[in-house]
Protein 1
Amino acid sequence: MALLSADTLLAEYTLNIRKTHSERLLPLIDALLRESAVEREQLEAVAVAVGPGSFTGIRIGVATARALAQGLAIPAAGVSTLKALAEAVPTPGALICPLLDARRNEVYGALYRRQSAPSLRLEELIAPAATALDNLIGQLHRYQEPIIFTGEGLAAYGPPLTAALGSQAVLPPAPLRLCRASWVALCGRRLLERNPAASYEELLPQYLRRPEAERRLAERQKEGSP
C-alpha cells in the first residue's frame, strides 16, 4: 500500500509474503497513516488494484477500498494490475508485457507501448486476458523487437519465454517484477483526473475468467444434466 500527495510518494509498504490479507491489511493502513502523520479523514481519494490476480486477494482489496471510499465520502479508482506493473517501466518507446500466473497452464497478460515524451503514457496493444502462454507468444512474435517483461508470472514462465523469443525477451531481476502500490496509486490518480467523481460503487473485481469455485460448480452441473 502507498500514500501519495500530488506527485510525491509519502510512504509505501511492500510485503511479498503469503499471509492472510484480511488480517494484515487494515492494521497496515493504520500504520501507514500514523507514520505519515496523516489522519484518515484527510484522505481525498482511494485507488485499488482490481485484478487480475488472486481471487481472494482481489476481493479483500476491493472490499476494503469500497468501505474506505464510502465511509469517507471520497472518490475511488479501480486499476488494472497489469497496467500498474507496466507503469514501472519508464523507457520511451518500449514494448512492455506484464505477466501473472493464472494457473491451469494459463497466464494473465497484456502488451503496452510507452509513448514518447512529453506524454509518456501507456498505449494498449494487446488487451488484458487470461490465455495459454503459447497463444500470447504467438501474438508477441509479430512485433519483431525487444519486449520488456515484468510481473511475478516470470518465476514460472520466464524460461519458456526466453526459449521461444530468444533475445526479444528482456527479463528484469526478480525484485523489479512486483506490483508496487505506488504505481497503483499513480494510475488511480490519473484515472481520477479524467473522472473526479468516480464512485466506490464502480469498484468491481476484474478476474478475466470465472473463479475456480464457479467453474467447478458449472462443470458438476453440466455433468449432472441430462
Protein 2
Amino acid sequence: MSAKKASLLEISNLHVSVEGIQIIQGLNLVIQLGEIHAIMGRNGSGKSTLANVLMGHPSYEVTQGKISFLGKDLFELSVDERARAGMFLSFQYPMTIPGVQVGNFLRKSVSAVNESKLSAKEFRVLLKEKMSNLEIDRSFLSRYVNDGFSGGEKKRMEILQLLLLNPKLAILDETDSGLDIDALRLVSEGINAAAKDSGCLLITHYQRLLDLVKPDFVHVMIDGKIVKTGNAKLALEVEDKGYDWLEV
C-alpha cells in the first residue's frame, strides 16, 4: 500500500494577530497540487493577512496553529527559503523599485529562486515567450520596476514573474483589481497557464476573474474564519446575495 501523498499546503487552526489585534481566528485550509482555490470576503476579513503570513511577512504574529508546505513546517523557512521551495506571492499593491530595470530584476529573480540555472540565451528565449503571451512590449524591460506603471502594467508584471518563476504554489492577492477587460483576459490566461502544474490561491472580490479562471473550490472568509466552502457556484451566490446570509 502506497503512502499518502503530502498536501501542497495544509493550514490547521491558524490564529494571527497584528499589533495585538486578532485578525485570523482558527482558519483551516488544504490545497493539493493542481487545485485552484478562491477566497472571497469583505475588506478586513483577513484575506490579505493570510497571504502575507504564508510568505513570511514579519509584521504578522502567528499566535496559534500550524502550516505545512510540501510536508515541511512552513514556520521553519525564511522568506527566501519559501520562495526557493516554490511559493510565490503576487501583491495587491506591487512596490515601485526606482533605479532597478525590469530586465535585470527578472533575470536575477529567476537566478536566485530557481535551482536549475538557465544560460543567458535560454533566459532570453523564455522571457520573450512569456512577454509575448502577455502582450508586453520589449521596451518594458528597460523601464524601472513598477515606476510610472499603470495598474494593468503592474499586474501584468506580477504575472510575468509568476510565469518565469513557475512556482509550486501561487498566492495571488487581488490580481484582478484595477484591470480593464483586455488586461483581465491576459492576466487570467497567465494564471491558467501557471496553474496547470501547480496549486493556486486566488484572493478576489469579483466574479469576473472567476469567469476566466475556474476555481475548484471557493471559500468565504468572515472575521478571520472560513465560514463556507463550495464550488464555483458559491461565488455566484455571493455576487447575488452579498455576505450577510453567511454571517455566523
Protein 3
Amino acid sequence: MNILALDSSTEACSAALLREDGEVFARFEVAPRQHTRLLPQMMEGVLSESGVEKSLLTHCAFANGPGAFTGIRIAAAQAQGIGIGLGIPLLPVSTLATLAQVSLDRYAYANTLAALDARMNEIYWAVYRRDEEGCAQLLGSERLGGLDDIRIDADLESGAGHGWLAELRARVELPIYSELLPDARSLLKLAASAARRNLAVEASLVGINYLRNQVAEKARV
C-alpha cells in the first residue's frame, strides 16, 4: 500500500506518506490560517521525497474532525479530489483519535484522554486505549461538552491536547501534554490499520465528523 495522509483540522498542518516498503515521509508545521497554501505543498513534498508517483497511491487518508470547520474541509476536499481523480478509496480518521495516537506514540501510557478546545466554552474529547497493534482504540464515544461534562475515570493514565484547560488540569493528578497536536504521521498508523480491515470509503461518499449538531454532523464534502 502507498497511503497519503493529510491533516489540517487544527492550527497544525501536516502531510505524510506510507510507502509500500514501510518507510514514512512527513511534513508538519504549526501555521494557523495558512493551511490552504501549505497542505498542497506538503503533499507534493512527501510524494517527491518518497519517489512515489501520485498515480501509484492506493489510499488517501485525512483527519475528518472534530476540529476547526474550515481546516477540516480543506483536507477533506483535497483528499476527495485525489480519491475521485485517481479512483482510489479514502480513509477518514478521527482528529481526536489522531491526537491520541500522537500521545501514545510518544509516551508509554496505556490510555489517554484526548481533548481539543472547541471554543464557546466547550471541548471535544474522548478516551482512547492502546490496542494490540499499538493503535488508539476509542473507549465509549467522542463527545462535545463543557468542562463539567467531562468524566475522568480512575484508570485514566494521561491527557493530550489543548482542550485540557487550566481548570480541567486542576481536577487531576496526571501527566497532561496540552502542547500535542494531531499529526499526519500518527494518522497514517490508524489509516493503515483501517485499510487492512477494509474500512476504506468511496471518495464520493465521504463525510465530516463535526460533532456540533447545528453544523450538520453528516454533511458531505
